[in-house]
Amino acid sequence: MSLVHSEENNNNGKVCEFAFYKHLGNKLPVVNTLDDLIRELRELFDSDKINVEYLNYLMKSYKSRPADWKKYAKFDRCRYTRNLVDRGNGKYNLMLLCWGEGHGSGIHDHADSHCFMKMLQGSLEEVKYAWPKCEGEELQEIARTKLELNDTCYINNSIGLHRVENSSNIDTAISLHLYCPPYDQCLVFNKNTAKTTVSTVTFHSMYGKRLKDNDKILAQPEDN
Ligand SMILES: [Fe+2]
Fold first, then answer.
1. Residue 176 and residue 174: Cα distance in Å, rounded?
2. Is residue 23 part of an annotated ligand binding site?
3. To the nearest whole number, what is the mean pLDDT of the chain?
4. How many Å lie between the centroid of ligand 1 and the Cα of residue 27?
5. Which of the listed residues 28, 47, 66 is the one where a domain comes to its end?
6. Is it the case that residue 106 has pLDDT exceeding 80?
7. Which of 28, 46, 74, 221 is 20 to 30 A away from residue 137, measured at CA?
């Protein structure tokens, strides 16, 4: 399986949603519900070549409806949580991340995975950083984006590093993430020194069922 871009795009994290249009024979799928989105994603990943713009289009087409996803939305008082929605035949993980007030991730990479993200509730701030040239130097911020309801974004290691934060002290936030291929470890960076630590990731819940601490399985990155 490989991810490919439409010819009109480059790999800079900004995608033109309709650059893939000709690949579909001018027929666009209907994505009204989260189940529609899951179905279309599974169908897309039946192919060996995944068009990045089309995947982004699917994520963007779905308009958040809390009734669709509330069974997956499980919060923790102390930190953001990762809640598995679909394993995508082992080719990708689709999950809800639930961010309490003030919760944020560390600055992290994404292994060899592609990360697609969509806002389902509230807002988040994404801060991107350039890869450090050497250990000991402060990480350089290259972009800062406020993500509002239904916004999408995309990152992989060729674009840089990022951290995500719910800066609100009043509102929670929920985002939908697709990681392909799935990964269970990533690097977390110290902002001042670029020193890295390996972070292993776990799920807070799977398919709407909360996991006990002892049962937590690998599959959740970007922690510190
Ligand atoms: Fe991330």
1. 7
2. no
3. 88
4. 32
5. 66
6. yes
7. 221
